[in-house]
Design a protein that fits this description.
It is a single chain. The chain is α/β, with parallel strands linked by helices and 168 residues long. It has a domain at 8-93: Rossmann fold. It has eight helices and eight strands; from the N terminus they run βαββαβαβαβαβαβαα. Strands 5-4-1-6-7-8 form a six-stranded parallel sheet, sandwiched between helices. The protein has a two-stranded antiparallel sheet with strand order 2-3. Helix 2 packs parallel to helix 7 (141-152). The longest helix has 12 residues, at 32-43. It starts with a strand and ends with a helix.
Length: 168
């Protein structure tokens, strides 16, 4: 059973584009549908972590906004972050799922119970994960991953119930 998600940011939670303004402020766009699914995942009692190679106040804000349990930025070795998350959460790697799109995600993806890549991930990552999603990074790939896991584990109806269940 998957109990914890590990999410990459650029190329998974976003489309991978980084835009700078004239004052060198960084801009990122997150998919609201991904955020909605992450919040519902957490509402069901699961955990989530964001592990990213870059540092960004935007990512910190987004993680806080969604209530993500663990946030690691500026990570050079994502497998090391995985080991820290495993230690802190007391959740085994076989009960974790991760999504990644590029070479810096490879070692992490090979260590978790279930691995995913957006449809626009680099080919070596697509070839090494358990599931290549239909959606591109930043275009609903994280939501597709969450819904895939919940369907596989028989909790999809519970995920929907709060929103479309019988109100009475």
């Amino acid at each position: 059973m998957i109990r914890l998600l590990i999410l990459d940011v650029d190329g998974c939670m976003t489309d991978g584009k980084i835009t700078y303004t004239n004052t060198l402020d960084e801009l990122k766009s997150f998919n609201v549908k991904d955020g909605f699914a992450i919040k519902q995942w957490l509402r069901l009692g699961y955990k989530a972590a964001i592990v990213t190679g870059r540092e960004s106040k935007i990512v910190s804000h987004r993680a806080d906004e969604m209530g993500v349990d663990y946030l690691y930025q500026g990570v050079k070795d994502k497998k090391e972050a995985l080991l820290r998350i495993e230690e802190l959460s007391k959740i085994g790697r076989n009960e974790m799922a991760a999504i990644g799109d590029d070479l810096n995600d490879y070692r992490l993806l090979k260590e978790v119970g279930l691995s995913f890549a957006p449809s626009d991930a680099v080919s070596i990552i697509q070839e090494s994960v358990d599931v290549v999603l239909k959606k591109r990074g930043g275009e609903g790939a994280v939501r597709e991953m969450i819904e895939y896991i919940l369907k596989k584990e028989g909790r999809f109806e519970e995920y929907l119930e709060h929103w479309i269940g019988d109100s009475g």
